[in-house]
């Protein structure tokens, strides 16, 4: 109704209303109805004058009846003119009590309107009854079950997600993610968990595949790098031994090493494998129960987390996740959007047919709506009263009159007609009774 923001309790009054073309058209209609009602008053006054003149001129019979009707019509018209005018201003500018009701009682009317809305529209019973009658659950379900609607919601969600990720500053998110991961890792002791996991791995024999792989790769490396191995063995021999002896010893050591690794690779019951099993079992137990081992693991964890390279990796994870999410949100055929669409269609189908799910959704919505209206009822009603209080009194009267003034002018017309009929009836009954 106006072109400024609603003021708070301490804000200055709003400037005058901005009248639209529709408001001006309504005001012209009010002026036409005022002219009609005033013209009817002038007409009955003229009829009264003529009827009175005819009666005093000796014309008997009908002039008296017409004069009585016209007189009562004038009284009714004037009385209703006073009542209608008193709503918006002081009749003829006279300081008559209880006139100009809307300008003088504007703030009180705003407070009363706010209280009325709060008591009759923002009560818990009204909100729950209205929401329950709407049947939001089934309506939302039927709407979502339509593929076009699910596509639309998916598109809107994707747009909102992209917008949110665009607004967020990478540096802020990276700092939060890095701090959260580091703090969580520092707070949780990892040794017992690692020990329990290692214990389960050894018990299930899952580590055997790792031993097989290591043995296979070690054997292949020894075969491929025989010269390097021989040089290492010979280089570690004492300087006083002959070279052919060093070569002989190196060759023997190399062959024994190949044999040991191949046997360990091919024999599941090899003693070395058993030694590895016992070592891993003891280490898993120490991780869970040995205080010194657990403390060492925690120190190692802290050292690793404190390294700048690790922190950079943690922080940079957000950039990868963000890029992945934005790419998935933009691609209509991405797994993310396809899954969201399928979930929406499934939810819509269930909501449309599952009364229990409908009841849950409607219960949540009712509770949320009731919480809002009961918690912020005062703010909502004060918005109404403060808004009305900020309106200019004169322009408020003009605005209201433009919207309801035409109907009020019919009151003046009806008052004239009803008054005339009542006056005619009273005069007729009085004349008949008095003879």
TrEMBL record:
The keyword Cytoplasm does not apply. It comes from the Bacteria. InterPro entries: DUF445 (IPR007383). Keywords: Membrane, Transmembrane, Transmembrane helix. The chain crosses the membrane at residues 35-54, 66-88, 413-433. This is DUF445 domain-containing protein.
